[in-house]
Amino acid sequence: MTTDVLDTAPPRSVPPAAPPPRRRSGRFRGASINLLALPALLLFAVFTIYPLISGVAISFSDWDGYSADSNPVGGANYLRLFTDDTFRAVLITTFIYGIGSTVVQQVLGLGLALALDGKLAGRGVARAIIYLPVLVSPIVMGTFYYLLFQYNTGAFNDVVVAFGGERQAWLSTQGGGVTIILAVNSIQFVGTSMIIYLAGLQGIAPEYIEAAILDGANAGQRFRHVVLPLLQPAFATSVVLNLIGGLKLFDVIQVLTGGGPGTSTSSVSTLIGRTYFDAQSAGYSAAMGVALFFIIAVLTILANGALNRRRLEQQ
Amino acid sequence: MKSRSLAATLAASTALVLAGSLSACSGGSGTDGKAVLEFQTAQSVDSPVYAQLEAITAAFEEENPDVDIDLKTGADDYEPQMKVRLAARNAPDIWATHGWSLLRYSQFLAPLQDEPWAENFDDVLEPVMKNDSGEFFALPVTTSASGLIYNRTVLEDAGVDPAGLTSWDALADAAEAVKANGVVPFSLAGSKDGSAGNLVDWIAPGGFTDDELAKMSDGEFQEDAYADLLGVLADMKTDGWTNVDYTSATGDDMARSLAEGTSAFALSTNALVTLAWTYNPDADLSYMPVPPLDGGDPYLIGGEDTAFGVAKDGDNVEIAKEYLAFLAQPENASALAAAVGNPPGLTNAEPDLGALTDPFEQYVASGTVPLEPFFDRVYLPNGMWDSVVTTADGVLAAQSTPAEGAAKMAGDFDTLFSQSSN
């Protein structure tokens, strides 16, 4: 009887078949993979680049915004910006919205972030509630506050009357209108600042705080000398985002006051809309748009530059 | 093969992107071979006019089974929406011209003076709807004939006889009398509504001499006279004739105030009366000719109201004209005018003005009261309406002086007049 070596040999473990080496898809490889960005680029070109170029071209014409014909006017629309008292006044109001909203949102956003960074009960819910308005359309937010501040049926006036006071025309003056618009915008977007600062706070290594405590730093000193410097990147991000948002403010103004009385609560964005559609001066309106673009770009670069310098100095 | 798949993927993506961005197209032919015409109305879906248009359109489509009229509702942003469509060369086949068939839209519209119904075109509309060649560009469904709206109960409570309000001084006395009764004399809405501009349009005919108006027509803005006009508005504010919530008030607030008797007067089209009756159907509201500033005769403000034009470059111009002719049939034109609540724009249509029939018979049908055109449409260049509203709004809210408002108007007038002259 012969014994087959195979019968007596101990069973061998057969290594599993190695997976075939992964090959990069032949469909998209090399430089061709960049072509996948083409749809996005096309969208960007159609909705951003083309309108930008078109807007600049319109700004050198006297187009009324709908007719087939227009005439080139050179730089007349840009020169008009320097002599237009309305534009100058509205630009100042726009700066109030931009800078005011930025300041309010940094203070509130940082305060809320510090409060909700600790181990508080219900902090998740609180964060969600504060961030929720960011998800709401500014038109809806504006309408909500319009219903609160409205003269005849507004909730605030109902409260005033219930306490024996007289109804107030909250939105009928420039001071009242600008303050309310600024407050509504700040309240709506304070959640963005809070989230940015929270991310910044949670990125600070606890060792820094512990070292400061060992060195005898009190809470105020720790905040000023440790936390604030380390929050500089978050601060820069939040300031730039809020500044751009405030300078472009449109929807809330449109709903609350329509830019009135007169143009006293208008921003450059609402003035652009009125000039384009109502005053039928698309050329001048486009020039305002280009000017606003450069104003925002310059301010953003300056703010970014200043904040980066400060950060480098502290490092 | 692979490169073909890549090309197909990219082509499909690109096509989707372009389809998404270029998807707005006007009428043409439907998939079932029907001629599809887009009719952009300026009416909301729940308005009586839209309901009437739906009924008439259904009857037209029944008679013309190869035609599909696609009625589109309008909204508050109708005007900018139309401007964008015209700028994009994507005009509807038919659209509502809301008072601008000649000055703004005629370059896009087919002339209609040779249509069979043109012989019934109301002559009163001629100065504002016809050009020097006798062409007009819209079917006039209604004529706007408006004046000083008032709440009769409020005036009677204050001992004011409406028939006696034939001068601005008499109106001033009446305003003081109702104010003494704790009622706001004039109901106004803020800049979002444009009622400040209506105020200018309504009182301007008594604020300029014929010579000044002629100069305005020739491109010479009359800054001093306009400052005087704005001065009247400033006085209304300082004398307490206007509502405290002026800036935040809307057209609805105006109507409700008038209906509830918390204000006495309004200078607006009669649509405000119809709106006011939705708040209080029993409110005793009417209108009278506007007491003039200059001591002349009281007048009404009028001109083009609801009107529909046909795109001259549309795919179905002749069908669109047939549809307009259907709308112009006496029973249809009468029903539409009744739904609007204003006098018909065609002479063979019957007016049905409901509770406003009496003032219509007394002032409009009798032909005894002059009908003045809207000031801004005749004496100011196209595009000035926004300046009219914002400057009047600024003065009414005491944010600017009449002189500042007039100076702003002068600057805008010069810019837009030179633009329209090019």
TrEMBL record, chain A:
<keyword id="KW-0812">Transmembrane</keyword>
<keyword id="KW-1003">Cell membrane</keyword>
<dbReference type="Pfam" id="PF00528">
    <property type="entry name" value="BPD_transp_1"/>
</dbReference>
<dbReference type="InterPro" id="IPR000515">
    <property type="entry name" value="MetI-like"/>
</dbReference>
<keyword id="KW-1133">Transmembrane helix</keyword>
<comment type="similarity">
    <text>Belongs to the binding-protein-dependent transport system permease family.</text>
</comment>
<feature type="region of interest" description="Disordered">
    <location>
        <begin position="1"/>
        <end position="25"/>
    </location>
</feature>
<keyword id="KW-0813">Transport</keyword>
<dbReference type="InterPro" id="IPR035906">
    <property type="entry name" value="MetI-like_sf"/>
</dbReference>
<feature type="transmembrane region" description="Helical">
    <location>
        <begin position="180"/>
        <end position="205"/>
    </location>
</feature>
<dbReference type="GO" id="GO:0005886">
    <property type="term" value="C:plasma membrane"/>
</dbReference>
<feature type="transmembrane region" description="Helical">
    <location>
        <begin position="89"/>
        <end position="116"/>
    </location>
</feature>
<keyword id="KW-0472">Membrane</keyword>
<dbReference type="InterPro" id="IPR051393">
    <property type="entry name" value="ABC_transporter_permease"/>
</dbReference>
<feature type="transmembrane region" description="Helical">
    <location>
        <begin position="128"/>
        <end position="148"/>
    </location>
</feature>
<feature type="transmembrane region" description="Helical">
    <location>
        <begin position="226"/>
        <end position="247"/>
    </location>
</feature>
<protein>
    <submittedName>
        <fullName>Sugar ABC transporter permease</fullName>
    </submittedName>
</protein>
<feature type="transmembrane region" description="Helical">
    <location>
        <begin position="31"/>
        <end position="53"/>
    </location>
</feature>
<dbReference type="GO" id="GO:0055085">
    <property type="term" value="P:transmembrane transport"/>
</dbReference>
<feature type="domain" description="ABC transmembrane type-1">
    <location>
        <begin position="91"/>
        <end position="303"/>
    </location>
</feature>
<feature type="transmembrane region" description="Helical">
    <location>
        <begin position="284"/>
        <end position="307"/>
    </location>
</feature>
From TrEMBL, chain B:
<keyword id="KW-0449">Lipoprotein</keyword>
<keyword id="KW-0564">Palmitate</keyword>
<keyword id="KW-0732">Signal</keyword>
<comment type="similarity">
    <text>Belongs to the bacterial solute-binding protein 1 family.</text>
</comment>
<keyword id="KW-1003">Cell membrane</keyword>
<dbReference type="InterPro" id="IPR050490">
    <property type="entry name" value="Bact_solute-bd_prot1"/>
</dbReference>
<keyword id="KW-0813">Transport</keyword>
<dbReference type="InterPro" id="IPR006061">
    <property type="entry name" value="SBP_1_CS"/>
</dbReference>
<feature type="signal peptide">
    <location>
        <begin position="1"/>
        <end position="19"/>
    </location>
</feature>
<protein>
    <submittedName>
        <fullName>Carbohydrate ABC transporter substrate-binding protein</fullName>
    </submittedName>
</protein>
<dbReference type="InterPro" id="IPR006059">
    <property type="entry name" value="SBP"/>
</dbReference>
<dbReference type="Pfam" id="PF01547">
    <property type="entry name" value="SBP_bac_1"/>
</dbReference>
<dbReference type="GO" id="GO:0055085">
    <property type="term" value="P:transmembrane transport"/>
</dbReference>
<keyword id="KW-0472">Membrane</keyword>
